[in-house]
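Review box. Two proteins, two foldings.
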Amino acid sequence: MNGLRSMHLQMTYARRLGAFLMAALLCVAVLARATRADAPTNSADQLRAAHDAAQLAGAIEHVEADVRAARRAYAVALAKTATSDGALLHADPDFIATERRNRLVLQTMRARLQHAELTLTIADHARLVWGLNIIDSPNSSIFGPSMLTAQAMADFAARAHTHVRATVPLLTLAWLFIDEGEHEGVRGDVAFAQAMLETGTFSSFVGPNNFGALGGCATCSHDGFATARDGVRAQIQLLRWRADASLHSARDFAAQPATLPARFLRTGHGGTTWASLGGRWSPDPSYGLHVYALYLRMVESHA
């Protein structure tokens, strides 16, 4: 019976180790592409970058879940093996056998936890290098993962302005940018910086929940949105529309129902970098540079 239990533990551990190694290899593969490639410059490259980012984020999420599970299992096993070696000298045979099995489980769980944490270290390194690769220049991709947390984004906005007039708390708003950005493959933290620039850090709006100042020119129809999520989604979807020439209609967006006003879908596609927004999102040719400069200030404040 003990032999079967030991074999079962070893097989379970082998399967877990295989999953960890596969996640690590995925992270390394994405890391290798990130370190040897310049910022993507065309639509196909941008979509590949977004796909890589999604894969990396999924792998890291899986590894983090495994680490949490391994820590819980290790804690349970440790609690069951609290008996000292000295106490075993005077214990009955059945208790000694049970303790030995518990220690075998503990040894297996310790090894599982070590491998899980090693894989997480590799994944975190991949995420860091990916981030350094994509955030060093305004000529980097509109597509990709958010590198900042919602808390870091909200804290930066709160320090920048004391008279915020958003319809939801800053932390909620920051989370919406990250969430909607993930749906469309757009970097939600940079879009949040863009919204700060457009609204004076959420203190002045051309229309309700219009964080990207859509239709904000003097002669334009100023757009308003029913909810904060609707407004964030419209801004994110317009960013994707500008950068992704494979989109043909509102039905092609990942997040449905789409909230981007239909007239923007007649404006055609543009560049795929933040710098390329200049002269298109705003008449100012250096508009994208200003957006990115604000984003880099947000990154530096969090470092």
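Next protein.
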Amino acid sequence: MRTMPKPRPMEGRCPHRPLQDIASSQNDFQLVRPPSLGLPAPHRVAAPARVSSYPMRLQDKVIIVTGGTSGIGEAIAGRAVAEGARVLVHGIERADGEAVVARLGARAALHLDDLLDPASPERIVAAALRAFGRIDGLVNNAAIVARDTLATARLDFFERMMAVNLRAPLFLIQAAFPHLKATQGSVVNIGSINAYSGQPSLLAYSLSKGGLQTLTRNLANAHCTDQVRFNHLNVGWVLTTREYHHQIEHGMPPDWPDKVPTVFAPSGRLIRPEEVAAATIYWLGDESRPISGSVVELEQYSLFGRNPDKQ
């Protein structure tokens, strides 16, 4: 559902790596993943399978990615494996998860769990330790995205939203923290630009993402001397398969991605999951050390003080 557009994610600068090489590094990937099913052909993008020219940025790190069986989470999991990581892919749909892990190969393991269950964080952490023996990074990506307003707000809806979007990340971090401390690891929380106020029809979702942003900053300040880093990406409008079909369900035509107004997508297109994944790798890896507590907007324009010309 429409959140907002994102700018091109930032690629961190690798030691001894020329800036011009970083800018063109997308060309150094072999693209082997089948095109994203369910999107119109012009919007299908294959995910990078491995880097051919440069040292892998997450070599042998173990990363947990929640919501890793589709969309942004799938792209993050794929890019992490491409950068040398071993990844615990969390999800709730077995068929989707098994397909993703089959594509990623032996460096990925699947764990199915419902984040509505308060006991799920402990199980997810235990699954990562069983599969790979350590934890170097956690990406809190899984989220419920659904519409409500003040007039339509319901307690059960609100509690589900907060359980998945805010409670689960907090207690996943708590469960993983001793292991992250042992590896001087990194947490990346995938937020939304709705954290700053939000789309009118995304009341509970916006509240949950505002809370996640505060969680990131609080933990970064509280645990800076523990050598565990916490950073946060506020993502704009991303074209995932789920978003594509969601908009059609709400009355948009099949070619709606080609007709997004430039006020929402100045580049002429929406942000791709692979671009969010590229930014996530930087914050997971050692090249962003010792930075912690950062909140980065992945949008196609500045969120602050924007006042587009009236036409």
